[in-house]
Amino acid sequence: MLWILTQNKQSLMNVRDVSVKGKHIVGFIESSLLDQWNKTMGKYESTDRAIEVLNEIFTKIEESNGTAITFTMPQK
Question: Could you give the CA distance from residue 54 to residue 45 in angstroms, rounded to a whole number?
Answer without folding.
Answer: 14
